[in-house]
């Protein structure tokens, strides 16, 4: 993938968008309903297939097998896949906008060499482990500990709501690494799933996200080498700013759901007749479709603005722009998929049309990576340049 002129980059993007749309529609759209119904994780060979197409390393460094393209290229591909099949899109999301980005930007050369080639090839996956039973939105309340003892780190604790939990090969674990309270004592360490002392709870039976496993992780005196430390205490802000890239991926998932629901609705209301005329002839339907389009387009523009800052593998997005985009897209996807179901009437309530699955997934993406309520708090914090203590 060339990174010369704007014209070359635009040509690159159109080519990769076209490839992604074709693969997603032909190979993964037919599997989407089945993976949802059976709660099937994406098979390893499918992930490796995506890796062979270069889709798992679009925004990762070239020296490890990636393309080092702007994050917007990865988001374009994620959208094409999420439009047809969220579990397949999740593989591209996790590799390009997930914890691999933290390793690529904040990790040591040795960590990059050890993990990134495998992620880019689809041989291994990495998941992020932040939330705990008593620390969800209040992430800085986490109690999982990573105690450094010479050349060894001992990890103890329990993580919850881990997307790809029990399925991923390695976890980027946010943990308390010093006795300093709050964010200042938190760092991050890589823990491989096959280390002695790592175990998993039963897979969650979620409303949506059904082809994306989620499970508790238990760390019982797990020992990893000190070279697995990615960020030491005091680097929490750095960690969370990098996590903004994952929020861009999340925003894209929501955008794809809204766009798909809108497209299906536009087609349906022109074909479906009631009272002797197509639904679109009714003014109430026109107003609803217009509202859907307004919300989808607003989310798209906010996402494009937030992503435009991340051109090279060193750039980080503006947290304010990310929170504006994520909050807007998350709420849009819930609302637009709901309106699509209503305009489809009884058909919208069947599994056959796929809208109920999209609505279920929309709620999941709004919860993941920081809820709309938390994004609103972030927005005000960034606008005012001050933080708010929710504990007082």
From TrEMBL:
Domain called Acyl-CoA dehydrogenase/oxidase C-terminal: residue spans: 235-383
Cofactor: FAD
UniProt KW Oxidoreductase keyword: yes
Annotated ranges, domain Acyl-CoA dehydrogenase/oxidase N-terminal: 10-123
CDD domains cross-referenced by the UniProt entry: ACAD
Record domain Acyl-CoA oxidase/dehydrogenase middle: where: 127-222
InterPro entries reported in the protein's UniProt record: Acyl-CoA_DH_CS, Acyl-CoA_Oxase/DH_mid-dom, Acyl-CoA_Oxase/DH_mid-dom_sf, AcylCo_DH-like_C, AcylCo_DH/oxidase_C, AcylCoA_DH/ox_N, AcylCoA_DH/ox_N_sf, AcylCoA_DH/oxidase_NM_dom_sf
Keywords: FAD, Flavoprotein, Oxidoreductase
Record-stated family: Belongs to the acyl-CoA dehydrogenase family.
Protein name in UniProt: Acyl-CoA dehydrogenase
Source species of the chain: Gordonia caeni
């Amino acid at each position: 993938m060339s990174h010369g002129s704007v014209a070359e980059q635009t040509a690159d993007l159109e080519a990769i968008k076209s490839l992604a749309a074709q693969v997603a529609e032909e190979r993964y759209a037919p599997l989407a309903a089945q993976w949802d119904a059976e709660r099937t994780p994406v098979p390893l060979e499918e992930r490796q297939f995506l890796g062979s197409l270069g889709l798992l390393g679009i925004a990762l460094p070239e020296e490890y097998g990636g393309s080092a393209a702007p994050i917007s290229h990865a988001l374009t591909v994620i959208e094409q896949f999420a439009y047809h099949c969220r579990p397949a899109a999740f593989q591209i999301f996790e590799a390009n906008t997930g914890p691999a980005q933290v390793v690529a930007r904040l990790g040591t050369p040795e960590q990059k060499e050890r993990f990134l080639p495998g992620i880019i090839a689809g041989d291994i996956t990495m998941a992020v482990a932040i939330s705990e039973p008593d620390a969800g939105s209040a992430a800085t309340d986490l109690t999982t500990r990573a105690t450094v003892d010479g050349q060894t780190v001992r990890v103890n604790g329990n993580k919850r709501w881990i997307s790809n939990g029990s399925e991923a090969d390695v976890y980027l674990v946010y943990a308390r690494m010093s006795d300093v309270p709050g964010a200042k004592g938190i760092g991050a360490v890589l823990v491989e799933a096959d280390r002695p002392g790592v175990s998993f709870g039963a897979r969650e039976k979620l409303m949506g996200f059904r082809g994306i496993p989620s499970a508790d992780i238990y760390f019982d005196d797990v020992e990893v080498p000190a070279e697995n430390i990615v960020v030491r205490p005091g680097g929490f802000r750095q960690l969370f700013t990098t996590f903004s890239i994952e929020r861009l991926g999340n925003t894209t998932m929501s955008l794809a759901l809204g766009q798909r629901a809108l497209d299906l609705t536009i087609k349906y209301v022109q074909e479906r007749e009631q009272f002797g005329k197509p639904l679109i002839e009714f003014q109430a339907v026109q107003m609803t479709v217009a509202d859907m389009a307004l919300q989808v387009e607003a989310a798209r523009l906010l996402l494009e603005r937030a992503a435009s800052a991340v051109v090279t593998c060193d750039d980080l997005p503006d947290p304010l722009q990310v929170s504006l985009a994520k909050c807007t897209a998350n709420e849009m996807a819930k609302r637009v998929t709901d309106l699509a179901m209503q305009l489809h009437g009884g058909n919208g309530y069947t599994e056959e049309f796929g809208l109920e699955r999209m609505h279920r997934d929309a709620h999941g993406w709004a919860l993941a990576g920081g809820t709309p309520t938390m994004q609103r708090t972030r927005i005000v914090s960034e606008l005012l340049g001050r933080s708010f203590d929710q504990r007082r």
